[in-house]
Amino acid sequence: MGKQILPIFLTVLLITTQTYSQTIESLRQNIEQIINSKNAIVGVAINGVNDKDMLSINGTKHFPMQSVFKFPIALTMLAEIDKGHFSFDQKIDIKKNELLPGLWSPIREKYPEGTTLTVAEILKYTITLSDNVGCDILLKQLGKPQTVETYFSKNNFKDIAIKINEETMQNNWDLQFQNWTTPKEANRILQVFYENKENLLSQRSYDFVWKMMKATQTGKNRLKGQLPEETIVAHKTGWSGQNESTGITAAVNDIGIIFLPDGKYFFISVFVTQSMEDLETNEEIISDIAKAAWDYFSKKQ
Question: What pLDDT is stored for residue 301 in this prediction?
């Protein structure tokens, strides 16, 4: 009797494993179909709560971050706040000559003559509205862009480089590639800081950054584009614009956490580079991939 049970058990296990693998493989195939028809290089990393629910495409390739780097900048500033080097209520003077006209800046639009804002206010502008002036003010307070890279390196994140600020990045197309990460590392940063098992952030800093990430107002046609309207997405976007000479777009990115109706969630990072597609198509690549992942994880509930 025992000899009969063992083969049956192994057969059931094999069928279950094959079905599971095929399901994961079907998601990969769906994503590859989305990517293969586009004139662009796309990097994807997806991690479910279950470690087995993972896939990546070009997952270790270096992609320019553009404004995605504002998320690690914010995390570094929050870590400095937790150390007592800054405070949320600390006031920072922003002079008129720092409100550079070539940079995207809701701060400049609201305060064209300069202003004084708290560190918390500057962080909110930087994360939720992707304010470039706010970003560079934070980097100035931290000392230099490499301070952020050093913080992540010390915490065992190796596949991330931050060398220049927004002003430098926006004034020289080629230099943007100095600020890079990989889809897999972007997902790992999201996961480590969201789960916060290593207590890298205090509770106040943790609550602050994830509230801001959920309030992000940029990139509504990317990760969130095709998801149910009530879906909560905590994310950060990046965009290079299009090179007028070559027609190439170097970066249309979105990384974040997508929350399912039952409270479960998955991490997803999508980077589009070297694209000859228009912005609408580049954003559609991201929203198509997010929808495919949403459908997969929703069926697993």
Answer: 60
